Amino acid sequence: MTFKLFNLLVQASVWTIGISAISIVIGFILALGLSAALLSARKLYRRPAEFFISFFRGVPLLVQLLLIYNLLPFIGLNVPSIVAAIVGMSLCTAAYQAENLRGGFESVPKGFIEAADMAGLSPRQIFMRIKAPIALRLTFPALVNEAIMILKSSSLVSVVGIVEITRMAQDLASSTYMPIEIFSSAAIIYLAICWIVAMTGKYVERSLPGAVK
Amino acid sequence: MMFDPNVILRHMPEIMSGTAVTLALWITGMLLGVILGFIIATLRRYGSPLLDVPLGLIVEVLRGTPFLIQIFLVYYGGPFIGISLDPIPCGLLGLSIYAAAYYSEIFRAGYQAVPHGHFEAAECLGLSRLQIIRRILLPEMALIVLPPSVNLAVILLKESAVLSIITVPELTTTVSAIGSQEYAFLEAIFLLALIYWFIVEAAARLGRAAEARLSTYRFAAP
Fold first, then answer.
1. Residue B96: C-alpha distances to residues A150, B19, B62 (Å)
2. For residue A70, which residues of chain B lie inside 8 Å, CB to CB?
């Protein structure tokens, strides 16, 4: 196991981190819409959101990736496999993040909203100043967890041919006959990335208002 | 490309056997994971601190790395240290170890959540050690441990699809093979998604029913 091989794995981690970060962001934006639909009083909005979440939480990510990878060309979208990977991961994490956000919005104390209403805040102000900040604050730890889950799950995009850490490790292992060294190194890189995300998450959480000191 | 339902009927035996392999791997892996996880959590709590540190490290490594990498390490790395396993035993080993790491954390939280006062109260009432474990510790732990365990069970079922990458003849492997054989890959994957969805929903419902049944204990352990 040379430094050069390890370096190749570290370089491939740019793809792991990039795909995960983009998917988390897109997933978060989708989840905002989905959680709004989930909390809606109208079944017309609630049912499709529940259906979407149930499907994407009920099917293995590997199967979702294979489905999207083969579905996009079928409906006439000939996109590179990286796009298929990001679409798949974003939809999957959107479903999980939407459930988290729904829980967060539901845990905003009723009294706060009533008090804001009494103080004469408009529904828009109540949402922007009371509900959204408290819900986002409450769901922040879950968001960090989800980011770590997605980082680990991103190893599955290796099956659609993206040369991130796992795929690079596979290629190197078969060409050098050193699978133990190579896959252990890949594991260490994943551990390091997850650890950095967890530590950053803890640091940010402590600096957020309302943190338990 | 129109879907021909006869394809499914023609390949029903293979689909059934793939489903059987997935279910068998899932249930055995989960049971082994629960047993091993319980042993790890118990050793970490009641064993020597010398044991706690390495066990904690192993659990952290298993929880911080992708399942796929762990599987590759066992499947491709194993033969280099004299452990050559066929895909199915390799998959079962990988799934059990992965499950054990997560279950050990669930049990650790379970141990921590039983209030110390309950043990003291039981001792004052003259219950024996065995009675305390059987009547106080385990029922109260079960209540705390069940919801995350059901969650983990569903995650494990979905992770088992990853074993198709090392050619374990489970559901994903079988159905995608039928797809390429019949030139109907998209339909096959769609069917695959539906089968998983069905099993996951069924498992989640079963878990919720068990939680509802067990929650009668809540009167005793508020």
1. 22, 19, 11
2. 185-186, 189
ipTM of model: 0.89
CA distance A55 to B201: 9
* Spatial CA neighbour of A150 closest among A84, A81, A205, A92: A92
A59 — contact with chain B (CB < 8 Å)?
yes
Residues A14, A10, A194, B76, Cα dihedral to 10°: 120
In a domain, B218, yes or no: no
For CA atoms B198, B203, B206, B208, the dihedral sign is negative
Residues from chain A contacting residue B76 (CB–CB below 8 Å):
173, 179, 183
Domain map of chain A by residue range? Answer: 3-207
* CA distance linking residue A25 with residue A43, whole number of Å: 27
Of B60, B172, B201, the CB nearest to A58: B201
Q: Do A60 and B77 touch (CB under 8 A)?
A: no
- CATH number of the structural domain spanning residue B194: 1.10.3720.10
Q: Tell me whether residue B125 is in a domain.
A: no
Residue A60: alpha-carbon gap to chain centroid:
15
Q: How many domains does chain B have?
A: 1
Nearest to B201 by CA among A49, A63, A50, A54: A54
Q: What is the rounded distance in angstroms from the CA atom of residue B66 to the CA atom of residue B68?
A: 5
CATH number of A3-207: 1.10.3720.10
Residue B4 main-chain phi, psi, to 5 deg: -110, 110
Residues (pLDDT < 50) of chain A are none
pLDDT in tens, B176-189: 998 888 888 888 89
User: Taking the CA atoms of chain A, what radius of gyration do you get in angstroms?
Assistant: 20
Instruction: Report whether pLDDT(B160) > 50.
Output: yes
What's the CA gap between B171 and A68, in Å, rounded?
Answer: 18
